[in-house]
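Comment on this:
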Amino acid sequence: MAKHNGLAEVESRYYYISSYFSFLFPVYLVWRIWVVLFKSIVGHQAAETFSMVLVKEA
């Protein structure tokens, strides 16, 4: 989508933790285990959030 709009990616960061279910520890623990397993299968696509630095291409 960025490239289609004339932008180039300079940097991207992936984050594998969030506060989902933190209010209920047993559910949170199961969620964390799932994320670790899923990350081992699909890599950075398992990120819960991400950020990108984009610049306008000349």
